[in-house]
Fold each of these.
Amino acid sequence: MKRLVRAAAGALILAMAALPAAAQKKGGTLVMVVLPEPPTLASYLSTSGPVGQVAAKVYEGLLEYGPDQKPKPGLAKSWEAAADGRSITFKLQDGVTWHDGKPFTSADVKFTLMEVLKKLHPRGGTTFQALAEVETPDASTVVMKLDKPAPYILSALSGYESPMVPKHLFEGSDIRSNPNANKPVGTGPFKFVSWERGQYVRLDRNPTYWRKGQPYLDRIVARFIADPGTRTAAMEKGEVHYGAFGAVPYVDIPRIRTLPHIDVSTDGYGMISSLMQLEINTAKPPFDKVKVRQAVSYALDRKFMIDNIWFGFGKPSTGPISSNFQAAGLYEGKVRDYTVKDAVEIANKLLDEAGYPRGADGMRFKIVHDMLPYGDEWRRLGEYIKQALGNVGIDVTLRYEDVPTWLKRIFTDYDYNITSTFYYNLADPVMGVHRQYHSSMIRKGTVFVNGSRYSNPAVDKLLDEATVETDPAKRAQQYSQFQKILAEDVPLIFMTEMQFATVFNKKVKGAFDDALGVYSSFAGVWME
Amino acid sequence: MALAVQRLRYLGRRALQAVPIILAIVVCNFVLLNLAPGDAASVLAGEAGSATPEYMAELRQRFGLDQPFHVQLFHYLRNMLAFDLGYSFRHSRPVLDLVLDRLGPTLLLMGTAAVVAIVVGVLLGVLAALNLNGWRDTLISIFALVSYATPLFWIGLMMIVVFSIQLDLLPTSGMESVAAFYEGWERVVDIARHLVLPATTLSLFYLALYTRLMRASMLEQAGMDYVVTARAKGLTERRIVVRHILRNALLPIVTMAGVQVAGMLGGSVIVESVFGWPGLGLLAFESLFARDLNLLLGIFFLSSCLVVAVNLLVDLLYALLDPRIEVR
């Protein structure tokens, strides 16, 4: 009976999903606002957000991902992993051509994987660490040969994360300084036309796109507007139709979402899973003591931050892995809870026990808090932290520097106490999480790795095992253990799971049918 | 004829003198900018979100950041002398291309704003001086004070709210309508419509300055002996104002405008960012935060050339307005 109900519900959902297909309309120009202006469109060399937001319309990956984050056919129409996990075979779509008319073949895939992504992509070295060789038995078959099982690779083959580039335009040149960085040639639904620096990138419909009937839009224009107030005004006036990742600042959202032609969504960020954290210098007193770090974790009210600084966007986080991984079985919620009622008393008690009694002025010790130099919200957060930690006797001085100075301070000089930051979990913990906690990732001068200098052999072992584990149940067990240890050790204070807001004109349809949101190809987007 | 030769010789000498000045500026900029902590490689990697140490080392090597400081300076100067402004690794394009792309829009915006500010400022200043302590004088002085005291970004945003959103007369931002891609005259009209708000906003601030300066200058000249003489000669009041007072009163405006126009050509970060105008100011601002030193130095080089050129022009203009000033 239960199964029957589920089947009926499934059929209903399918029917509902099929409905709007009839209403899809051809034509129109979608203007999206992208910030800041990307330096290049070389998404095969940089994972920087704005680069990918534009380039993902031009370059495609082997796979795409539905809202449930399960892989769907992309440039590969089918794929199969060997039972021992040591190889994955892809069958490519037929009749795919590059925008310059040359056919897309398995040779392009092999070249992209081995020569571009594995060697030059900032995350490619990690993602494809196990990839030993790519075999191409024929023009439409690709076989990845792996040294050891790497189950996470199948989560990392989107057009944003692993874009396929044309071998004939890159081979024999210095890939890093190839002129295609500024005029991409891909297989995607939109062709690059022009880039007016400081203004916009223009992409026109690819008439020979391999998915028949798509794309629906005639053109996508990505505009760059530096001022947040102006972005909101342009959205309000209908000059731009779509903006993701805080294109419209949080502070304007409560007002703009009441307008009849505007809507706001938090969908399309599921494969990013951004976690806001306080990175702590665990090698320097007073934060070398676990109890002090735990006290800070208790002293901060996550709900307050979400409601008052992020205007309700976000939810409290419990550890290093986002609850978005619940469906994949990798999230563990039963860990030490820092949001208990008497959290402030516990914090005071822990600080007393750690050997930092209150002095005559009520303060225990002084620290400097470095605010993430990414805008106003982080200043407001800093002000809140100063106040909240002041309540438990920690005297906080705030510091705000520019991005290069901040990066150098945290990841090269390690000259800090505590800083606000956020990290993407990405599609799998191997890609987004390990870099923060594995002791091999304490790498002076490399940014956004283990800047806390946290080192725990038990954690290293768990992470190493989970990297090659192919049994989902065992892998879940390893990550569960990992999250429990981290919640006790708190080398970073786990604050919130951030929710980004996409603001869009209601004329824009079909923009949320892909797990990658703004990083998807927009082949299925149309305008009413 | 002799005068023309003299002027040409003067021009040549001034141009030669400018070379060591600009070189000194380049060296100063290079040294100062290199004092800033952090480098382009760490920013690029930071934007990428993650990077391996090998990747970072490779970036630094490619950018030449692994070289000792004096070697970097030497390379830069050598390229400079060959009129090569270098390559922006961040943008994967030559610096000269990037700067020239922005030069047109910058000159358009700044030129329009400067002309509006000077012409309207002079007119308002004359009007105020002729109607000393009258209602027009009071009104103009209040207007000048308010324009001068209001922050530019606020004026810009209010302009957008009023003229673009409420009245729906003008576009909010950008230099042309990107959904339409007009051609020919339609494009000119489109760009002109986009120019109105930013040019007005930017000119308001300078306009206020010129109004006040012109008013004071007119009043000062009006009390001079030659004005009394002219009046005694029986000239009409109109002729006295236009031919005698105005011409002499313009000299301080020219001095002031010379200094400011040169500065304006470097771009205005605030107006450009509020109106999404593709100018040099914003490019300089962004490249500073990205530590894209080649690009930043290129912009500074161009700005310093412009300043030198405008100063020279102002000196020539003096001689034209007041024949007693000679160029030698």
Amino acid sequence: MEPALAWIVLGLPLLGAATLAAWPTEPPRSMTRVLGVGPIALGFLLSAWLYVQMLGESSDDRLVVSRVWEWIEIGDLTIDVALQIDPLSVMMMLIITGVGSLIFLYSTEYMEHDRDYRRFFAEMGFFVFSMLLLVLAANFLFLIVGWALVGLASYLLIGFYYEKPPAVAAAKKAFIINVIGDIAMVIGAFILIVELGTLDYALVFEAAPDGLSRGAVEAVTILLFVGAAAKSAQVPLHTWLPDAMEGPTPVSALIHAATMVTAGVYLVVRTHELYELAPFASDLVAITGAVTLFLAATIAMVQVDVKRVLAWSTVSQIGYMIMAAGLGAYGAAMFHLMTHAFFKALLFLSIGIVIHGLAGEQSLDRMGGLGRHLKLAYVATAIGVLAISGVPGTSGFFSKDEILASAWDAGDLGRALWVVGALAAGITAFYMFRLLLRTFYGPEPGGGYGVHPHRSRWPMTVPVAVLAVLSLFGGWIQVPSGWSWITDWLEPVIGPESIPGQQAEGVTLVASIAVVAIGAGVAWWIFAADPGRRSRLAGRFAATRRLLEDGYRFDPVYQQALVQPSRDLGDYLYGRFEPDFIQGMLKGAVSLVRGGAIALRAAQDGLVRTYAFVMVAGVVSLGALLAWVVTR
Amino acid sequence: MAEQVVFVIAAAGALISGVLVVTLENAFRATVALIVTLVSVAVIFLLLAAPFVAVIQIIVYAGAIVVLFLFVIAYLGERSPPGMEDRLAPYQPFAWIVVIALVGQAGIMLANSDLPGLRDEPQATGDIGSPEAVGRAFIDDYIVPFEATSAILLVAAIAAVLLAKRAIKFEGGR
Amino acid sequence: MSGVPLIWYLLLSFGLFGLGLLGVMRRRNPLLMLLAVELMLNSANIALVGFARHWDNTDGQIFALVVMAVAAAEVVIGLGLVVAVFRQRLALNVDEMSSLKG
């Protein structure tokens, strides 16, 4: 196995991004395309080759730490510049570069009309580099570095249309919430340094059972989870993700669906040895995941902006992954992470085709009947909807069912959460079919379309097609009661994992098919069967509807409790403290000096006689002083 | 004995005329008092076995410098114009205090001094004050100060010319 | 004792010096101030020559002669300045010449 491959895959996107950024003028489009897509596509090929190499190794040899340089040495603490190359990180690499290449290719066409073409690809390349750093890091320091850089990339990309105030506000919001997570993670890292004296994954996991007290390990895992919750938009740190849809659609696809937001899941799986020592924290993780997945699903039911529907569904699906990780089903969590990357990217990209075709329209109220015009988008979206709903045979079906089955087998808490998950699956089916039907089915909006929905070209259609295939068939690599290829692959990292039992699988199978049927059926009944029914029913449950539309009022509460007081503090400091106190101190110092100078100036009265007097007086004083000193 | 008598007379003369120098209002009279002081000091020099210095004192100080003063006083008018009130008058006592303090300090210092021979009879001296002795000292040991002093005098002469030139020009001369 | 001990000369020197100092601080006419300065210079010369005899050495006398030469130069320039100031129509009052104030 050649560790250098990992370094190359890591470095190429950075190189591409740096070149694009440093270019003195806007480079020619072809060059930007090559420097943008090239490194990522190449990275995928190299990652695949690395994977093939790894297959050739025995299971024990698949974990390699490639150390390049001993960077920090303070006392007993040593931190190296090192990459961890093992099944988990290679899996993430493949997902990031694979799905990434498809999305980058798509973007070359989608962003064609944008004047900041180069900036887009530079920022995206920087993002991929940061994300790879995050997953390849071999110690907590570089994990946190990658974590923070990914947050920066997200800020830059959400605020891509920086001339639009909502975009800027959304970028700030995302960044601030992420920083809260970052701080928690740093504190967690500090605790590790204090207690164990190292940040290396290998050393930490080895020393943890004996070296960390129960309280310490609970604290560290909870702090790390705060970071994960912020990055993965779990309740209560989820409010930034729907707003992040202000960014261009490819950004939403790559960062806020397929990769960055899954970093939290990756973190829990990577540090699972700590979570196994901290049952309280693990339960907290699972419950948070469950609460999030349910709340988000309900909110998605009433969203009118297509991208917001997908955003809330992302929050919800990540909640499934987090819940699985909290319950110890790491293989299931990673499986769903992978399938979700496929079908969520697919959904975003195909909805992107719709938005692109309608010249920027994003509201469901002004869509309908697009199936006639955008056939590929219709089929692709339909496949994505089937996958996310967990229709049997699709990738989402296998991964979601595995999560639910593992939950069933995970004790009392697990069973309770199973109920939540199953219900939410039904709601998921409902709102996803709602999206599909209102966009592509039924009548066109009154007045038809002002713009003729224009077809997209191959850079957009090919990735969508590839993702559609993956979403349909990608789940067959892990079939319950059959083979569990992902869990086996990850075994060197996550240890041997129990496969859900027959009873769990059976119950889950029945339940999931039932809820999907009900959810889809209700959606059909409201949105498709009778065209007028939707508006008739819209008036009912108005209060509940408003609550859901407001996202359970998280945002106003945060605004009141946190944002406004901060603003007020800022205003106070700027308006009162700074001029009165700080400037006042400066002015006071100045006037003190000036007053002293004026006082001293009185001695320079210009009269010779005064000077003579002062000289003599000085001599007399000095003489007296000397006499006193000498006689001591 | 004789030495002491001469000293007392010369000292008294110097001190009394010194008082006159600093108190007389009329500039002319003050300058004349200075002449008396200078002559008394020349006598003191003679007592101190410095005949050459005494003669130079008379020739240069009393003869040249005082004459300069007299010329300028004549040129400018002997009486100081009435002018304004002395704005520093209230502070006079301070001047007295300071001078008395200084002289007092000096006195205390002298009283406590251990300098050998300070209060004794003066010893006989060799030839230290004759022109030959002074000349040799200048040429052998202190040639540099000698030349430096001539340079200073040169500078003073040039400065005098310059200052006078400006004055003439101001009055409409060439 | 029939000779004059050194300390008498020193006392005389200090006395003359004090007188000169008083004169400098009290006189407003610059010419009269210069006279008082001459007084102080002479008192210094007395001390110098006195010590010359005490140490049986010509050095003090040499110093006194140099002082005299410098005093001459100083008087020349000082009087020249006084004349120049007078030419500017300023009153002969040292308090008026206070442009270096502040």
Amino acid sequence: MTDIQLIGSPMAPEAEEVVPALVGAERVLQPLARRGVFRRLMRDWTARIGFVLVVLLVLAAVLAPLLAPHEPLALDGGSFESPSWSHPFGTDRLGRDLFSRILFGARLSLGTAFFASLLITFAAVFVGSVTGFLGGAVDSVVMRVVDTILAFPSLLLAIVVAGLFKPSLWSLMLALASVWWVGYARIVRGLVLAVRERQFVTAARVAGGRSSRILIRHILPNVLPPVIVLATLEMGTLILAISALSFLGLGAQPPTPEWGAMLNEGKNHFFSAPHLMLFPGLAISAAVLGFNLLGDGLRDVLDPKS
Amino acid sequence: MRQTTSQAQPTVTVDASTAGRPLLEVRDLRTEYRSPSGIVRAVDGVSFTINPGEVLAVVGESGCGKTATALSILGLIPRHAGQVVGGQVLFEGEDLLSVRAERLRQIRGDRIAMIFQEPTLDPVRRIGDQISEVLRAHRALSHHDAWNQAVEFLGLVGIPRAAERARDYPHQFSGGMRQRALIAMAVALRPDLLIADEPTTALDVTIQAQILELLLEVRRSLGMAILLITHDLGIVAGFAERVMVMYGGRKVEEAPVRSLYRQPKHPYTWGLLGCTTRLDGNRRDRLPQITGAPPSLISPPTGCRFAPRCPHAQELCRASYPALLEVGDRHRAACHFAEGEEWGSS
Amino acid sequence: MRRYIVRRLASLAVVLWGVSILAFALGSLAPGDPARLLMERTLGHQATDEEVAGMRQELGLDRPAVEQYVSWAGGAVRGDLGTSWSNRNDQVSDLLLERLPRTVMLAVTAMLTAVIVAVPLGVAAARRRNSVTDHASRVAALLGASVPGFFVAYLLMFVFGVRLRLLPIFGFDSPQHLVLPSITLALGSAAILTRLTRSSLLEVLGEDYIRVGRAMGLRSRAVLFRHGLRNAVIPILTVIGLSFGHLLAGAVIVEWIFNWPGLGKLALDGIHARDYPLIQGFVLFTGTVFVLMNLAIDLAYVWADPRVRFQGQGA
């Protein structure tokens, strides 16, 4: 359901010429300012569930130190204890409390996803608006780079890039951003091209405005909102990618209580202590589901066709 | 009545037993649409009849329920969008609203066919194949025979080099030619009734007259009745025998064409007639004589639905809905003052 | 039409060239000194600077980057992707070709599974909009798109492998070994495909020509399949093509979990072992496959849509 806007029109099947995601972006541009987005969003039961999940997740991340019954790294229980009152999700091999680790994991997952999307948005807006605004050789070279990276499934390339570095949450974040920015950059470029032709920009040019000033004053304000919305919609995908890479050992390393890394740790004791995988797995699922539900609902609300 | 023996027989045969009986009789039809803001009463108790071979025009602004009426007759209201909630649609005495789905399917296309405003065909299939498919859905025909009949009918509706053009895809046809192809598809089974929903609205002005002429020609040679739905009283004059005017989901006036043009009884009809002087006028134009917007069919006004826009409205009009009364020979109108005053003379 | 194909092939060549540069760069831009890494791996202990320098010369790493790229790409054109640093020093190309069929088998099985489940489900949902089926398919699709495959894999293993003992969970020895990995892999694609089938079919079913078909008394089955699904097939094909790329990416994770000796596992082992020639070869190889697959999707359009087929023929 997240890929629907990738579909090109059957009349113009050439990937290079169709920027279908742009259509989606432009659609969200105007009505964003419309009032009552939230109220209309909450009319849909799936979006409501998504909202609740995301709010719970954010609360868990913010309040982790208050809510957690134990230190996430403290070895203060027996090995592989099953869920009990003192350890609601049980304990791992070293006797660490799983519930506390998952609460702190929310910070890492959300935080990494948030900073990664910040990085992606920043890179995309910079590259996309500069190339879109300047055009010419710079534009065509950068767009060929974009085409090349887009030829790969993002996750695959992110795995390879992350594998080149010493694994950590930072290298994971950089790897994700280095791959993910391209799709956004293409969208930004399309938006800039569209905005550039509008009257008020032409007017500013005729009036002799400096390029950088036109870019910042007139173009960016029109480009940023849809990109930010897109980044929000993709939060679920990013969380999924982060946990996938960590699960493969290419991101957060033990003893970091990152959910994907916890799954990786747990898989060695899967047969004897399945709860080690169950709870981190459920946490990832809930987070991704929450953002996807919210994103889907938002997309519906912002789509003037509905 | 139903021509099962000879496919090529071009004249109408009116069976003695069915003579005098209407071909289609719609009684108190009620259709509702669902919308985010509530139930829309698109058709609100409409009754009318069509006799075999007759041409009836249904006229009104968009949103007056004329298309909903046509779709209801054939059971084509999409399930998620709305439904027929009451009334009867008697086709040769058989109530189409209560027959089984398969029976209704057999009637569609074969006995009652319909063409629409937008001349669209399946973009990925050849035109000849699409017409053959309709033929084969109703008759036991071989591929070959169906194709030949399709070509024959494409020729009949004026497609040049029909045998060749039948192999074309819809995008290779112009809008007017597609509408011709759709007419060929609709009449290929020699239906008794053809419902034409704004068949010329989406076409160029120059093509409009040709399509109307074609419809009349087809009717002359095949002898079916036509229910023409239009917002344009201008095209009705030379085409229909009787006219029914709809407003706000109800029938407000009904008369033989001549009588309606000479002595329109309902102020709404008079307003409509006021804008029929130019055939080439922009069809999206608002009716110049009638100010204001059509009524909301979600919570319609209690009295006469036209009262808020009517220049002659009285207290009575806002209080109670006028009954549909005989005001002349086969001429009926739903206006409290239809008999008292000639709106046109003022 | 011909102009379109020529343009398409030209842009294909440019992207392939880009893919080769990217593949090469990924291997040579990596931090650390590959010569030292390889020398110490072969020696099993700290290498002296002379040893490392010798290794660097042997690998050609002392030459300028452009020269290295040209000789690497030249080899690649002839099918020579160099020697793997792990895997008993096998040829990279041999390794890739040996593993490819297994990954293709997995991906194709998964794709078929996804299509067989998703298309009927999407059709049923579109046909009965807002029905129980529709809502159930929506929930299933949401879960399928949100629950990570690497979590589902273990759930499946636990239920079918450990509890019910119905299916083997690791390895590659029998057709039964294919079941769990391909289900895991199919999940995400099936979710997307279900929703897409529903939405594109709904869009087509709202078209006027569908109403025409119904008004002309075609059987509802004929309207649904011959006209509805036939027209919805274009976006569906695109998503199947795109999902194939995602499947191959997902295969990396799934193969690793189920110990399925395919391309993905090869690559991941290569990544963990810092086997740069293997990584470069893998990126070049898969990149080429994806680019060609996109071309195939575009050609499928031409097959599926006469409007494209007849473009430029002066219709």
